[in-house]
Amino acid sequence: MIGIAAAWRAVAAMFILNGALFGIWASRIPAVRDHLGLTHEALGYGLLFMAAGAVCSFPVTGRLTDRFGAVSITRVIAVLYTLSLILLALADSFWALAGFLFVFGAFHGSMDVAMNAWAAEVEHAYDKPVMSSFHAMWSLGAGLGALSGYGAVQVGLTVMQHFLLMGGIVVALTLALSRVRWTSRKASSSGAAVFALPSGALILVGFTALCGALGEGAVADWSAIFLRDVTGAEESIAALGYAVFSVTMVAFRLAGGFVISRFGPVATARFGGVCAAMGVFTVVSTAEPALALIGFALMGIGYAVIMPLAFSRAASDLNVPPGQAIASVATLAYGGLLIGPPLIGFLAEMLTLRLAFAALLPLAVLIVLLSGALRPARLD
């Protein structure tokens, strides 16, 4: 069990890094938006490139993970992902930002697939649901990254200074903590589709994950802008939106193993969908920053276990190798982000940002309706 515990810590460190870099970026979106003078619509289209980079990376990473093993692929991408964060601070125009976001999104998505495949291996060795604990570490990292944005604004760090300092600290600590001997499963990718799309039962799994990913992405990309533009919060307070969301997500993901074991994945997902819906309603129905933060907290609870359950279900599929299965579900889930960011930006320009956020409400309800698809294949 000592070896398993060390493997858990190594994978957890990778999830923390992935979340931290994303949270660091998310916390400074208002600063980058203001520096480049972007409208809501323009920012939405810029974020589209990040989603596109992630989706394009999924099938390639899934095949590489199955062929070479999740451990080695995860470690290499961790370094490249950190370097791509620095690029974002160099953007001096919309198109420069779009290009750098594509690269950042590609490494973010690649690491997502590889580290979830590694996590599935460790979960299989534990023989109990621990996937949500890894995703709790992702949320912890994202929350700490977002909080670093609050601190950076308070002390007057530029975006470049912030990214260099925090990126360097996070990657150094992560690589140190992830040193462990672990032999990953390998599988042949011959005959696999070039572009990973789910099939059979994985289609509904992917659609359920899509609803959760859209909600998570909306909070990450737009919570700071929402708090600043809709509720009138100061920039330092606006950066707390994603931090609050991540804190509650961490708490529920840490409790997720017990909750899933006690009530099952289907009931847990349904509860998550209800909480997410309540959170969205709270956010869009208030003009007070404090109440909006409560709404984001509820959304954190609601979306907490959706992606972990989806990846666990994909990894347990009886017909598709784990790397390809996870990549296929991730493709559909994050594929929703291809239309999510620009859609919210477009709706914000045509209507209001408040009404644009309200579009997440029916998606939360859909999680409730599709939750049955998250029952593990081995229990079918």
TrEMBL record:
Spans traversing the lipid bilayer = 7-27, 42-61, 94-115, 136-153, 159-180, 192-215, 235-255, 267-284, 290-311, 323-347, 353-374
Query: What CDD domains does the annotation carry?
Result: MFS_MosC_like
| Membrane protein topology class | Multi-pass membrane protein
Which key words are in the record? Membrane, Transmembrane, Transmembrane helix
Superkingdom, natural source = Bacteria
- From the UniProt record, which GO molecular function terms apply? transmembrane transporter activity
Checking InterPro entries in the record gives: MFS (IPR011701), MFS_dom (IPR020846), MFS_trans_sf (IPR036259), MFS_Transporter (IPR051788)
Q: Can you give the residue ranges of the Major facilitator superfamily (MFS) profile domain?
A: 7-379
Quote the cellular component terms of the Gene Ontology held in the record.
membrane
Task: Kindly list the places in or outside the cell where this protein is found, as annotated in its UniProt entry.
Answer: Membrane
Name the major location.
membrane
Coiled-coil portions: none
Protein name stated in the entry: Transporter
